[in-house]
Design a protein that fits this description.
Two copies of one chain form a homodimer.
Chain A: E1 4-11, E2 14-22, E3 29-36, E4 45-50, H1 59-63, H2 66-70, E5 75-80, H3 119-133, E6 139-144, H4 147-158, E7 163-169, H5 179-189, H6 201-206, E8 215-220, H7 226-230, H8 232-241, E9 246-251, H9 258-276
Parallel strand pairs in A: 4-5, 4-6, 6-7, 7-8, 8-9
Antiparallel strand pairs in A: 1-2, 2-3, 3-5
Chain lengths: 277, 277
């Protein structure tokens, strides 16, 4: 087994587990949580959940209520941490939106970060390998929130041989033009903005990296980051002009919090489950 | 309005709110959270949730997934903090199981504590008044976890004119003989063990303080506190000999955590809802 079980809690007849493993991509130990519905032998599919800024492997699995949505399915969910930790790189712990807890799901190329901040490879290689080899899973889909919604979109669009379906809550759809995105992409990739585009969902769809299945997005209209950081409508426009099937549910009165996510997580889980079956 | 709204999050078409108010019983500010299903004008009933040691007003409403269970009902849930805070009383902050976060739902009589640690009155008077006057609620039930399960049992049994139904997760049913209970009852009430009995569910049922409705309890069998602190079977025995209707669901493999609570919260909510209607 390529991972160490740190703790487990029986949940909805299945198990919520917390694990740690050595990552070949980040060259650090990495943690993840997962929910396994009751009969592990029958688990065929996995949904990868990518969390947002400041989160670790615990927030979503504790707050979303996702276990109830998967309890009777043949599908697990796995929730990795959002960055390597404890490396003491320059600027790694100075702000909430760069470094620790803010890996942005890219492969860093800048000094210091290029040795460890390989979150794109960590998700698309290490985590997929664990799911295949240790959990016996053969089909995958991907979703996430905010920075993790961005991660789900770029990983889903680029790795379309791996991920059957893509969904996102409040994703950062156009990081090359949003303040969070610009700070992170410059820090991890350097000043050449051309290199940023491979990690921007709008740029990817615009250059023909489309998904064969509909992309599902939920976006709260009282989300304080909607207009400045998330830019959902940029993605709507580019999907329309690129014939990428997309459903955006704008949700009146909802904010950026886990209270929003928990309200609509069942819709997203059901969407992925339908497409596995 | 007798409370101040600190924050609110739209959830399941309703609202998860966090509030603060001046308590006549504790003579401090007290906080609570609540979930209000979508049409506040139609809310008729309230379930009071009492949390366990170390918790505050946030744990349950964030981790339990209760919103999904109440979204389509005419019933709100309210989750008070577990003690007064910030008083700097002797020993108030030295341990996790006494003082701050550990009010035990009693009216303290010991020096220092007697001026503020009136959690029994806080729940049965202050909180009920807010529910009646500010939320327009006329029917009540009560539930909770561990120390809060103890609180739900003693308040429900003693205030039977107020609470229609009682349920509990992993309650401390017999605090006069459990280490957590003995420490707290001695600290809040002094060494005379006779005064402790009014706050002990087994003693209450044994002396005729029974409820007209069935009491519902869920207890995990992998709960590390089950045998030493919770003593569920003592309550089963006394209920049987006192003709108190009781259903205890022993749950194989479940522990003392919120993963356990979230797995079975819907059963408890449904039980209370059935009895309101």
């Amino acid at each position: 087994m390529a991972y160490e079980l740190l703790k487990k809690h029986k949940s909805f007849d299945g198990e919520t587990i917390f694990c740690e493993h050595e990552s070949a991509s980040t060259k650090t130990k990495m943690k993840f949580s997962a929910f396994l519905p009751k009969d592990l032998k029958e688990i065929k599919n996995a949904i990868i959940w990518l969390s947002g800024l400041t989160c670790n492997e615990e927030n979503f699995i504790t707050k979303s209520g996702v276990q109830r949505c998967l309890a009777d399915s043949d599908t697990m969910i796995i929730c990795p941490d959002t960055s390597p930790r404890g490396l003491s790189l320059p600027k790694e712990s100075e702000s909430y939106d760069f470094g620790t807890g803010a890996g942005f799901y890219v492969n860093a190329t800048t000094e210091g970060y290029k040795g460890h901040y390989k979150m794109y490879d960590y998700i698309s290689k290490d985590l997929i390998n664990i799911l295949r080899n240790d959990f016996g899973v053969s089909s995958f889909s991907i979703t996430g929130h905010s920075m993790g919604g961005h991660g789900a979109l770029i990983l889903g669009l680029r790795e379309k041989g791996t991920f059957k379906t893509i969904s996102a809550f409040s994703p950062i759809v156009n990081p090359v033009v949003s303040p969070w995105g610009q700070k992170a992409l410059k820090g991890y990739l350097g000043p050449d903005t051309d290199t940023w585009k491979q990690y921007d969902a709008c740029e990817l769809v615009g250059s023909g990296n489309t998904s064969n299945s509909k992309i599902l997005i939920d976006q709260g209209l009282d989300d304080e980051f909607y207009e400045k950081e998330l830019l959902t409508q940029n993605f709507e426009k580019i999907c329309k002009s690129s014939s990428q099937s997309l459903l955006v549910n704008y949700r009146e009165g909802y904010d950026h919090s886990y209270y929003f996510i928990s309200s609509f997580i069942k819709n997203h889980i059901d969407y992925h489950l339908e497409n596995f079956n």
